[in-house]
Amino acid sequence: MPRFLFRIARSETQxxxxxxxxxxxxxxxxxxxxxxxxKLDPSLAFRCSCRVGMCGTCAMSINLxxxxxxxxxxxxxESDVVEVRPLPHLPVLKDLIVSLEPFFRQWKKIxxxxxxxxxxxxxxLVVVPPDSLFGEQHENKWNCITCGCCYAACGIVGLSDKYVxxxxxxxxxxxxxxxxxxxxxxxxxxxxxxxxxxxxCHTQFNCVAACPKKINLTDSIMRLxxxxxxxxxxxxxxxxxxxxxx
Length: 246
Prior knowledge:
five-stranded mixed beta sheet; 9 helices; 7 strands; 31% helix
């Protein structure tokens, strides 16, 4: 089997340790970390859960790119060296484990939950046509797993702790487009803020490259930037959902 040099950042020594690991071509970085933990260094700390790219728990920096360890096959890295670090911009708890508290603190600012419009009958099923703008955007951008990869890859997050980040903005766009939701004013205050909102994005596409679900987060940010230039945008949906277009 091919041998790979795993270079892993350790929190206790603030240094990297190196391990030679044999892996089959089909095996992932997460498989390699388990090999290290089971056979070479049982003190190595990292997170994982579903192991199928659904939970986002195993997000970490792999060869300088935020990725899911369970989705990253070692052969796709095209390198015999696998450098593994904790996600940047987030506090390190131990080794490859970070706290996502800063990410979720920003996530909560845009009120991610659905706030049902009070003028809607709660007993009546609301049908959103798949060919509507919300239906089209929801189809491609709903499946964020809040792994924090986009947050870790974003250069603006590294410069400002006010910026809410790509994942939060994408979620805000979907809620603002949703005709069933009425939390408009509060979300727009965050999204249109010069320090926290869409205007801080420099369109570097780092978030798009890092997203394991292939969500075009930069597109969501640019759509909201255009929408912010229109007076009364998104407030119109409260009276006429068909008019909400960006």
